[in-house]
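User: Here's a protein and a ligand (flavin-adenine dinucleotide). What would the complex look like?
Assistant: Let me lay out the input and then the predicted complex.
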Amino acid sequence: MESAPTNPGRLDLARWLDEATVGWSRAHPSLARHLETRLGEPLPASWVGELDGFATTVATVIDPAVARCESHRELPRHVPYDGVGRRIEHVEFHPAHAEAASAAWAAGLLDTDLSLEGDLRLAGLFFLLAHVGEGGVACPIVCTIGLRRALERRADPALAERYVASLREVDSARAARGAQFLTEVQGGSDVGANVVVAVPDPEVPGAWRVSGEKWFCSVADADLFALTARPDGAPAGTRGLGCFLVPRTLDGVTPNGFTIRRLKDKLGTRALASAEIDFDDALAFPIGEVDDGFAVAVEELLNVSRWLNALGAAGIMGRAWLVASSFAARRRAFGRSIGAFDGVAEQLALLRVHTDAAIASTMALSALVGRLDEGTASDDEACAHRFLVNALKVVTSLDATACVHDAIEVLGGNGTIEDFSVLPRLYRDAVVFESWEGTHHVLCAQIQRDAARGLLTEGLERWLERELEGAPDGARPLAVRVHEAAHESIARLAPGRVEMLSGSAARRVVTRVTRCVQAATMLRAAGDDTAGAPATASAELFVARHLADGGPSPDWRALVAAVLGPLG
Ligand SMILES: Cc1cc2nc3c(=O)[nH]c(=O)nc-3n(C[C@H](O)[C@H](O)[C@H](O)COP(=O)(O)OP(=O)(O)OC[C@H]3O[C@@H](n4cnc5c(N)ncnc54)[C@H](O)[C@@H]3O)c2cc1C
């Protein structure tokens, strides 16, 4: 008979596991605070209940299911033929994949309104979902949301009518999944080099036939693919691209003119099926005007993916913070709790602060998306959105990788063990979050181009000033410092100056402006706190870490203690 764990070290670890919190929404007080700030009113009781309930579902249903998919190494499998040799192009998953999807779909992420309330509700739920990393569910949800938006807002009403309800379905067994395929083998960033071709179908009015190879096709199991293709004879570059909807099958069984070459064996997002797919005369329907395809792809698909990627990165950081802080509260070394060592405490405090910054800024971005969806966004808000949707994708995904790395360090060797904690899986996923939906260099180059065209700086600075006006009285001096740093950094993005920046210099300036925005959004929601209270202390430590050059040197130890409070 197995004896009870009596070694004190094992007992501590067992307690840590037993105490693993499932109240993830309450474990991040800044989540409710920022949602309230952006909503402009106290969080309705129904939202609190919904967030708490979904946090429990993520912790007790989705997370274990995702862990099972990955720990059994039963990753998605390509099944090209059925038992009698007919081509079916199926993807088979570990059964736990359907369990995770069923719980995620039932939460209603796919059915939120395109409004301030709807987008904030989605943001809160998606942040919690991302506590499992991508998990084989986040990417399909994001792609489905993007496709629904593209169809609702751009497509011929008859096409939207045919498909939108199935994309909003909350029963995952009945729901249609969306996918979006832009990347081709000759280059993902250079979408203008796409060579997949579209020709009008001679028999079906309004329909097209699409042929060529797509190189990175996540959600290869999707029912509806959105893809970029160049109408025969259209101009080169992005302006010649169309955006098309390709149903997986036209008769419910036979693949609609496509074959899967193979599923890719990936570093992260391993429960997600990402394929190389060849199209050969697949029946396709244009989403919007055929010559407006790149705008549809960027505005309806990529901008949504980048926004939700940033929220997902915030969720990954949130989980890393919860794992590392709870571990530190239990783990002892040299007769002390490890959280009592300066280095560990500092690492934990910075983990918390970067999570707070990610939540603050992504909720601000979610509110901007909501206002744009409602048609109530001011010009300044549109500028802020244009900057943040790209800049936050860069900064939060880099922070997520760094934060998970630090959390792994807090757990020591145990942090590297696959079945000891979720951290190895989060680390792999975080690296993928960095590269898809636009690489860092490419997004910074995009910001540099937008800034050179005069589309960013003045509106962004006015928006940031209004954020800082909401800072609590006790944090005024901090707000002034953030404003000074922002003013100086945004000026470097002004037309006439921004063109002079090298790629790496542009990236540094974009990062610094983003840090200013993050600090401002943290202060905006710090409420009535006086300096030293956790929300303000968090902003102060963030400023000390990123924007303090030349400023007064803070009492680092006191700030770390104020941010962390008593661990455990
Ligand atoms: C797991 C996974 C799943 C994916 N799923 C999908 C999907 O479903 N649909 C889809 O369409 N795509 C998908 N992608 C592709 C992803 O969007 C691309 O990998 C990404 O856009 C980068 O393209 P690339 O890999 O071809 O890199 P490249 O474009 O070849 O870039 C290589 C390097 O050059 C740099 N670079 C390129 N252009 C510039 C520039 N102008 N200025 C400065 N630096 C530059 C990049 O930053 C990068 O460092 C997926 C990727 C991954 C990893």
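Summary: Residues 180-183, 187-190, 216-218, 266, 269, 274, 432, 435-439, 441-442, 445, 503 surround flavin-adenine dinucleotide (CB under 6 Å).
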